[in-house]
Amino acid sequence: MKGKKILLSKAMDSLGLLETLNNIDRSNLYVINYHRLYRNPLETQFNTKVFTHTEEIFYEQIKWFKKNYDIFGEEDLIQHLEGNRPLKRRTVVLTFDDGYLDNYEIAYPILKAFNIPAIFFIPYNQVDRTSVAWWDLLAYFVKNATVKAVCIAQKWFDLTQLTDRDMATCYLCWHYQLQSLNETGHFLQQWHTKLGVQTPLEEIEDLSQKEFMNWDQVKELSRNNITIGSHTMSHNVLANLILEEQERELVNSKALLEKKLDQEIRTVAYPVGKEQHFTEQTKELAEKAGYRAAFSFIKGYSKDQIQDKYSIPRMDLCSLSTSHFKAQTLLAKVF
To answer: Which class is domain 28-75+82-130+217-277+284-303?
Structure first.
Protein backbone atom coordinates (compact mmCIF):
# COMPACT_ATOMS: atom_id res chain seq x y z
CA MET A 1 0.00 0.00 0.00
CA LYS A 2 2.79 2.42 0.89
CA GLY A 3 4.44 1.82 -2.49
CA LYS A 4 1.18 2.62 -4.29
CA LYS A 5 0.78 5.85 -2.32
CA ILE A 6 4.30 6.91 -3.25
CA LEU A 7 3.58 6.27 -6.93
CA LEU A 8 0.28 8.16 -6.70
CA SER A 9 1.91 11.15 -5.01
CA LYS A 10 4.64 11.27 -7.67
CA ALA A 11 2.02 11.22 -10.42
CA MET A 12 0.04 13.99 -8.74
CA ASP A 13 3.21 16.04 -8.33
CA SER A 14 4.24 15.66 -11.97
CA LEU A 15 0.77 16.77 -13.10
CA GLY A 16 0.90 19.87 -10.89
CA LEU A 17 -1.95 18.68 -8.65
CA LEU A 18 0.03 19.00 -5.43
CA GLU A 19 0.86 22.61 -6.27
CA THR A 20 -2.81 23.28 -6.94
CA LEU A 21 -3.77 21.74 -3.60
CA ASN A 22 -1.09 23.80 -1.89
CA ASN A 23 -2.72 26.97 -3.17
CA ILE A 24 -6.02 26.02 -1.52
CA ASP A 25 -5.87 27.60 1.92
CA ARG A 26 -6.79 25.29 4.79
CA SER A 27 -6.29 26.08 8.46
CA ASN A 28 -4.99 22.69 9.54
CA LEU A 29 -2.35 22.13 12.21
CA TYR A 30 0.16 19.33 11.68
CA VAL A 31 2.55 18.25 14.42
CA ILE A 32 5.44 16.42 12.78
CA ASN A 33 7.46 13.88 14.75
CA TYR A 34 11.07 12.93 14.07
CA HIS A 35 13.40 10.54 15.86
CA ARG A 36 16.81 9.91 14.30
CA LEU A 37 18.39 11.43 11.19
CA TYR A 38 21.38 10.01 9.34
CA ARG A 39 23.93 10.51 6.61
CA ASN A 40 24.34 7.72 4.07
CA PRO A 41 25.48 5.03 4.45
CA LEU A 42 23.60 4.17 7.64
CA GLU A 43 25.87 2.30 10.03
CA THR A 44 24.78 1.52 13.58
CA GLN A 45 25.08 -1.21 16.18
CA PHE A 46 21.67 -0.25 17.47
CA ASN A 47 18.05 -0.04 16.26
CA THR A 48 17.77 0.99 12.60
CA LYS A 49 13.99 1.53 12.80
CA VAL A 50 14.35 4.86 14.61
CA PHE A 51 16.50 6.29 11.81
CA THR A 52 13.70 7.81 9.77
CA HIS A 53 15.20 10.41 7.43
CA THR A 54 18.41 11.18 5.64
CA GLU A 55 19.93 14.64 6.02
CA GLU A 56 18.97 15.42 2.41
CA ILE A 57 15.30 14.47 2.79
CA PHE A 58 15.05 16.37 6.06
CA TYR A 59 16.50 19.47 4.40
CA GLU A 60 13.91 19.22 1.59
CA GLN A 61 11.09 18.90 4.12
CA ILE A 62 12.24 21.93 6.11
CA LYS A 63 12.64 23.98 2.93
CA TRP A 64 9.09 23.01 1.89
CA PHE A 65 7.63 23.96 5.27
CA LYS A 66 9.48 27.26 5.36
CA LYS A 67 8.08 28.25 1.97
CA ASN A 68 4.52 26.99 2.31
CA TYR A 69 3.47 26.86 5.98
CA ASP A 70 3.34 28.88 9.16
CA ILE A 71 5.67 27.22 11.66
CA PHE A 72 4.78 27.36 15.34
CA GLY A 73 7.21 27.01 18.20
CA GLU A 74 6.10 25.92 21.66
CA GLU A 75 5.00 29.42 22.74
CA ASP A 76 2.95 29.88 19.56
CA LEU A 77 1.30 26.52 20.14
CA ILE A 78 0.44 27.29 23.77
CA GLN A 79 -1.06 30.62 22.71
CA HIS A 80 -3.11 28.77 20.11
CA LEU A 81 -4.30 26.24 22.70
CA GLU A 82 -5.43 29.09 24.93
CA GLY A 83 -7.40 30.72 22.12
CA ASN A 84 -5.02 33.60 21.55
CA ARG A 85 -3.39 32.52 18.29
CA PRO A 86 -5.83 31.44 15.56
CA LEU A 87 -4.49 29.58 12.55
CA LYS A 88 -4.17 31.76 9.46
CA ARG A 89 -3.19 28.97 7.06
CA ARG A 90 -1.63 25.50 7.14
CA THR A 91 0.62 25.34 10.16
CA VAL A 92 3.23 22.87 11.40
CA VAL A 93 4.95 22.20 14.71
CA LEU A 94 8.21 20.24 14.47
CA THR A 95 9.06 17.83 17.29
CA PHE A 96 11.99 15.50 17.95
CA ASP A 97 11.99 12.63 20.44
CA ASP A 98 14.67 10.90 22.52
CA GLY A 99 17.63 13.30 22.63
CA TYR A 100 19.85 11.56 20.09
CA LEU A 101 23.11 13.25 19.10
CA ASP A 102 22.15 13.34 15.42
CA ASN A 103 19.32 15.73 16.35
CA TYR A 104 22.05 18.16 17.42
CA GLU A 105 24.54 17.40 14.64
CA ILE A 106 22.12 17.17 11.68
CA ALA A 107 18.69 18.62 12.50
CA TYR A 108 19.78 21.62 14.57
CA PRO A 109 22.08 23.25 11.95
CA ILE A 110 19.36 22.96 9.28
CA LEU A 111 16.69 24.39 11.58
CA LYS A 112 19.05 27.17 12.56
CA ALA A 113 19.87 28.00 8.93
CA PHE A 114 16.16 28.42 8.16
CA ASN A 115 15.44 30.13 11.52
CA ILE A 116 12.80 27.53 12.32
CA PRO A 117 11.69 26.68 15.90
CA ALA A 118 11.15 23.15 17.17
CA ILE A 119 10.52 21.18 20.36
CA PHE A 120 13.05 18.53 21.42
CA PHE A 121 11.65 16.01 23.94
CA ILE A 122 14.38 14.71 26.25
CA PRO A 123 14.17 11.52 28.35
CA TYR A 124 16.17 12.72 31.34
CA ASN A 125 18.04 9.51 32.17
CA GLN A 126 19.18 8.97 28.59
CA VAL A 127 21.14 12.21 28.65
CA ASP A 128 22.07 12.37 32.32
CA ARG A 129 23.34 8.80 32.58
CA THR A 130 24.17 8.29 28.89
CA SER A 131 22.37 4.97 29.18
CA VAL A 132 21.43 2.92 26.13
CA ALA A 133 17.75 3.15 25.26
CA TRP A 134 15.92 -0.12 25.79
CA TRP A 135 14.94 -0.43 22.10
CA ASP A 136 18.59 0.04 21.14
CA LEU A 137 19.73 -2.54 23.69
CA LEU A 138 17.31 -5.13 22.33
CA ALA A 139 18.43 -4.46 18.75
CA TYR A 140 22.07 -4.79 19.85
CA PHE A 141 21.28 -8.12 21.54
CA VAL A 142 19.73 -9.53 18.36
CA LYS A 143 22.52 -8.25 16.10
CA ASN A 144 25.16 -9.74 18.40
CA ALA A 145 23.39 -12.98 19.29
CA THR A 146 25.53 -16.13 19.25
CA VAL A 147 22.49 -18.41 18.97
CA LYS A 148 21.31 -19.16 15.43
CA ALA A 149 17.59 -19.16 16.19
CA VAL A 150 15.32 -17.99 18.98
CA CYS A 151 11.72 -18.47 20.03
CA ILE A 152 9.85 -15.35 21.14
CA ALA A 153 6.21 -15.71 22.22
CA GLN A 154 5.95 -19.13 20.52
CA LYS A 155 7.33 -17.83 17.22
CA TRP A 156 10.73 -18.94 15.90
CA PHE A 157 13.17 -16.56 14.24
CA ASP A 158 16.19 -17.55 12.15
CA LEU A 159 18.80 -15.05 13.31
CA THR A 160 21.05 -15.81 10.34
CA GLN A 161 18.49 -13.96 8.17
CA LEU A 162 18.24 -10.16 8.18
CA THR A 163 14.44 -10.13 7.87
CA ASP A 164 14.04 -12.46 10.83
CA ARG A 165 16.51 -10.42 12.90
CA ASP A 166 14.46 -7.29 12.23
CA MET A 167 11.24 -9.09 13.15
CA ALA A 168 12.79 -10.54 16.30
CA THR A 169 13.83 -7.05 17.38
CA CYS A 170 10.28 -5.77 16.78
CA TYR A 171 8.82 -8.65 18.80
CA LEU A 172 11.18 -8.04 21.71
CA CYS A 173 10.44 -4.31 21.70
CA TRP A 174 6.72 -5.00 21.70
CA HIS A 175 7.04 -7.41 24.64
CA TYR A 176 9.24 -4.97 26.55
CA GLN A 177 6.44 -2.42 26.31
CA LEU A 178 4.18 -4.83 28.22
CA GLN A 179 6.51 -5.00 31.24
CA SER A 180 5.97 -3.17 34.50
CA LEU A 181 8.72 -0.86 35.74
CA ASN A 182 9.99 -3.54 38.15
CA GLU A 183 10.18 -6.13 35.38
CA THR A 184 12.10 -4.17 32.73
CA GLY A 185 15.59 -4.76 34.13
CA HIS A 186 15.01 -8.50 34.44
CA PHE A 187 13.56 -8.62 30.90
CA LEU A 188 16.71 -7.05 29.42
CA GLN A 189 19.03 -9.30 31.45
CA GLN A 190 17.00 -12.36 30.48
CA TRP A 191 17.29 -11.71 26.74
CA HIS A 192 20.95 -10.73 26.98
CA THR A 193 21.50 -14.24 28.37
CA LYS A 194 19.07 -16.11 26.09
CA LEU A 195 20.60 -14.64 22.95
CA GLY A 196 24.11 -15.47 24.11
CA VAL A 197 25.43 -11.92 23.80
CA GLN A 198 29.13 -11.95 24.69
CA THR A 199 29.55 -8.22 25.38
CA PRO A 200 28.79 -7.44 29.05
CA LEU A 201 25.91 -5.06 29.61
CA GLU A 202 28.13 -2.42 31.18
CA GLU A 203 30.33 -2.35 28.07
CA ILE A 204 27.27 -1.89 25.86
CA GLU A 205 26.26 1.02 28.08
CA ASP A 206 29.65 2.64 27.40
CA LEU A 207 28.89 2.62 23.68
CA SER A 208 25.88 4.87 24.26
CA GLN A 209 28.05 7.91 24.97
CA LYS A 210 28.22 8.43 21.20
CA GLU A 211 24.45 8.13 20.76
CA PHE A 212 22.94 10.89 22.90
CA MET A 213 23.44 14.59 23.39
CA ASN A 214 25.18 15.89 26.49
CA TRP A 215 23.86 18.68 28.72
CA ASP A 216 26.02 21.36 27.12
CA GLN A 217 24.46 20.56 23.75
CA VAL A 218 20.94 20.51 25.19
CA LYS A 219 21.59 23.89 26.82
CA GLU A 220 22.85 25.32 23.53
CA LEU A 221 19.67 24.18 21.79
CA SER A 222 17.53 25.77 24.49
CA ARG A 223 19.20 29.14 23.86
CA ASN A 224 18.73 29.00 20.09
CA ASN A 225 15.07 28.75 19.11
CA ILE A 226 14.70 25.13 20.27
CA THR A 227 12.35 24.47 23.19
CA ILE A 228 13.09 21.52 25.45
CA GLY A 229 10.21 19.34 26.58
CA SER A 230 10.06 16.27 28.79
CA HIS A 231 10.01 12.70 27.51
CA THR A 232 9.77 11.42 31.12
CA MET A 233 12.64 10.01 33.16
CA SER A 234 13.13 6.52 31.78
CA HIS A 235 11.05 6.35 28.55
CA ASN A 236 9.07 3.45 29.97
CA VAL A 237 5.49 3.03 28.82
CA LEU A 238 3.40 5.05 31.26
CA ALA A 239 0.27 2.91 30.99
CA ASN A 240 2.23 -0.05 32.41
CA LEU A 241 3.19 1.86 35.54
CA ILE A 242 1.15 2.33 38.68
CA LEU A 243 -0.09 5.88 39.18
CA GLU A 244 2.61 6.78 41.71
CA GLU A 245 5.31 5.69 39.25
CA GLN A 246 3.67 7.61 36.40
CA GLU A 247 3.54 10.70 38.57
CA ARG A 248 7.23 10.39 39.46
CA GLU A 249 8.17 10.01 35.79
CA LEU A 250 6.26 13.18 34.87
CA VAL A 251 7.03 15.32 37.91
CA ASN A 252 10.70 14.43 38.36
CA SER A 253 11.65 14.81 34.70
CA LYS A 254 10.05 18.26 34.63
CA ALA A 255 11.75 19.38 37.83
CA LEU A 256 15.18 18.04 36.90
CA LEU A 257 15.10 19.48 33.38
CA GLU A 258 14.09 22.84 34.84
CA LYS A 259 17.01 22.70 37.25
CA LYS A 260 19.48 21.75 34.51
CA LEU A 261 18.29 24.36 32.02
CA ASP A 262 17.08 27.10 34.36
CA GLN A 263 13.81 27.47 32.43
CA GLU A 264 10.24 26.24 32.69
CA ILE A 265 9.39 22.92 31.03
CA ARG A 266 5.87 23.30 29.65
CA THR A 267 5.30 20.29 27.40
CA VAL A 268 5.72 16.53 27.54
CA ALA A 269 5.60 13.73 24.96
CA TYR A 270 4.35 10.35 26.17
CA PRO A 271 6.89 7.56 25.47
CA VAL A 272 5.85 5.41 22.46
CA GLY A 273 2.61 7.38 22.60
CA LYS A 274 -0.06 5.21 20.95
CA GLU A 275 -3.56 4.84 22.43
CA GLN A 276 -2.54 1.88 24.60
CA HIS A 277 0.57 3.57 26.00
CA PHE A 278 -1.11 6.21 28.17
CA THR A 279 -4.50 6.62 29.86
CA GLU A 280 -6.96 9.29 30.90
CA GLN A 281 -5.30 9.21 34.31
CA THR A 282 -1.93 9.81 32.64
CA LYS A 283 -3.33 12.96 31.05
CA GLU A 284 -4.69 14.13 34.41
CA LEU A 285 -1.30 13.55 36.01
CA ALA A 286 0.41 15.53 33.23
CA GLU A 287 -1.90 18.47 33.84
CA LYS A 288 -1.46 18.17 37.61
CA ALA A 289 2.34 18.16 37.16
CA GLY A 290 2.08 21.58 35.53
CA TYR A 291 2.50 20.75 31.85
CA ARG A 292 0.57 23.08 29.57
CA ALA A 293 0.28 20.48 26.79
CA ALA A 294 1.12 16.84 26.09
CA PHE A 295 1.82 15.02 22.84
CA SER A 296 0.89 11.50 21.80
CA PHE A 297 2.09 9.57 18.77
CA ILE A 298 -1.45 8.90 17.62
CA LYS A 299 -1.48 9.66 13.92
CA GLY A 300 -3.56 12.65 12.95
CA TYR A 301 -3.81 16.38 12.57
CA SER A 302 -6.06 19.12 13.91
CA LYS A 303 -8.58 21.25 12.03
CA ASP A 304 -8.69 24.86 13.21
CA GLN A 305 -8.34 23.94 16.91
CA ILE A 306 -6.72 21.08 18.87
CA GLN A 307 -9.45 19.09 20.59
CA ASP A 308 -7.45 17.66 23.51
CA LYS A 309 -4.34 19.53 24.60
CA TYR A 310 -3.17 16.55 26.67
CA SER A 311 -3.27 14.18 23.72
CA ILE A 312 -2.07 16.19 20.74
CA PRO A 313 -1.73 13.92 17.69
CA ARG A 314 1.48 13.75 15.69
CA MET A 315 2.44 12.31 12.34
CA ASP A 316 5.67 11.09 10.79
CA LEU A 317 6.53 11.88 7.20
CA CYS A 318 7.67 9.62 4.39
CA SER A 319 11.44 9.39 4.13
CA LEU A 320 11.50 7.99 0.58
CA SER A 321 9.89 10.60 -1.63
CA THR A 322 9.56 14.39 -1.58
CA SER A 323 6.26 14.09 -3.45
CA HIS A 324 4.87 11.74 -0.82
CA PHE A 325 5.68 13.90 2.22
CA LYS A 326 4.06 16.88 0.48
CA ALA A 327 0.96 14.78 -0.19
CA GLN A 328 0.89 13.61 3.43
CA THR A 329 0.18 17.14 4.68
CA LEU A 330 -1.88 18.34 1.70
CA LEU A 331 -4.13 15.25 1.71
CA ALA A 332 -3.50 13.78 5.15
CA LYS A 333 -6.62 11.60 5.15
CA VAL A 334 -5.54 9.86 1.95
CA PHE A 335 -1.79 9.62 2.45
So the answer is: alpha beta
